[in-house]
Amino acid sequence: MQRLTTVLLFACVSLAGCVTQPVPMYRLDNGAVETPAQAADGVAVLLGPVRLADYLQHDALLQRLPDGSLAADGQQARWAGDLQGDINQLLMRQLAWRLNTQSLELSPGSKGFSPDVQVELEITRLDSGPQHPAVLEAQWRLLDKQGKRQGSRLVRLQEEHQGSMADQVRAQSVLLQRLSEMMAAAIEPMTVAKTPVKRNVVKAPSKPVAPPAIPAVEPIRTDLEVFRF
């Protein structure tokens, strides 16, 4: 009997060890964006290449520790899917909404797509921790239709959070949305040349119509003389 009890206890412990907690998985939030209407005159934007730092090219959702190092979350939290793809889609939707265009493609673009602007982006940091705010460090470069660089900028953005993993992901999403807003503001001046300028045609004042000429009345002369008595 004692041997049977021991076997049952061992079996219970083994089963308990096999039960694992579900792994929490998270996705970025694209924000409250509206899909722009299809417009033939919308600016054509080519997004990419979009490069991520090496430590962001993994499924694990790393945490920034108090000493500044990075480590996996204790609950083994992961990104639900490809982080690179999520970032690309967030940026695409944000830029389409802010620039009011549907003419956007990811690099290298489809055959026949002729962009007015190309945005090259490199994200070197995107992380947070229970005691660290969410931080985004990135650099973008803008190229015109001829491939000539029109501008570049280094940015470092920061967003506070409540400490939970869900709120950390929210804060990181907000940072990417703010990055999209800044890039859209930099792209807009390059679209002015594409927008046709409506010119008001000023008509020259019409010449006043001269009244019809009335021939002068000339007295009729005769050779007769009138005598009065």
Give me some keywords for this one.
disordered N terminus; ABC-type transport auxiliary lipoprotein component domain-containing protein; 229 residues; two-stranded parallel ribbon; elongated; ABC_trans_aux; alpha/beta; Rossmann fold
What's the number of helices?
A: 3
Overall mean pLDDT score?
83
Fraction of residues in H or I helices: 10-25%
The CATH fourth-level homologous superfamily of the domain at 46-192: ABC-type transport auxiliary lipoprotein component
Order of helices and strands: HEEEEEHEEEEH
Instruction: Classify the beta-strand content into a percent band.
Output: 15-25%
Counted beta strands: 9
- Strands in their spatial order, largest beta sheet: 6-2-7-8-9
Give me the CATH architecture of the domain at 46-192, please: 3-Layer(aba) Sandwich
Which CATH class of the domain at 46-192?
A: Alpha Beta
Question: Distance between termini?
Answer: 179 Å
The major beta sheet can be summarized as: 5 strands, mixed
3D shape: elongated
CATH topology of the domain at 46-192: Rossmann fold
Residue stretches low in confidence (pLDDT < 50, at least 5 long) are 1-16
Radius of gyration: 37 Å
